Amino acid sequence: FRQTPIDPKVMEKIRAERVCNQMGQAMRFAQRDVSQRAEAEKEKSFKGFARPPMYRDLPPHIVNIIGERRKDKLTFVAGALRMDQMPPEGLPEVCFCGRSNVGKSSLINAVTLSTTVRSSDKPGMTQQFNFYQLPRRLMVVDLPGYGFAFANPHKMEGWRLLMDSYNEQRKVLKRAFVVIDARHGLKQNDIEFLNRLERCKTPFQVILTKCDLVKEDDLARRHTLVSDHLQGYSKALKTIRMLSAYTGAGLKDLAQDMYSLSLKQGE
I want to staple 79 with a disulfide (CB 3.0 to 4.6 A). Which of 49, 60, 61, 128 is the partner? Predict the structure, then answer.
């Protein structure tokens, strides 16, 4: 791993976005702006909500969808264990997938400025396909995590079959966001899942999360290794996002990717 070359452009991006900054550094950087300090004070009145400090100054088209502060515009639509339990196809759809406890639910909450999606430190809490809607614009799906060691083998096989059916039959699915822990990179079960998406011809994009827990040099190396692996996939977007749902660094890029796939206003 230490012998992996560091791409200067990737390192420049890491430093510009401050994705490896820990929370204390992120808060100090965000509070340099007086208007952001005032906004942060206002948001203290929203019980149970804390906007990531570096997820601010959003473009107008994103603010139009999720609002300027926490209002829980993301609403739960349905939970499904079978295809016939999924909501009717209509809005464009994106899904978040990854290993159990990688932080998918927390990431969805962070990027949508919501507290709607249930998250837990206990692996395997998401056991079904959970569908959420941003008002008349986009469906966001939180998928069950894969690779949870204590999962029932029968349930795991059922999950695999349902995943294939979902990817092959859900025509409104625009992109799968595959969430990878930046500390560990691609594991075997991640690679197996990428192969499954490729086989089902589902466009996907890799997100390296928890970057605030990684050193800059190590993150740059991790990015190189993942990027090299993705060269073998025709359905993979080559742009890898690096972010922290905790500090908000890098979230704006993910928001741009997500909302570019939503219905435009008036459609």
Answer: 128
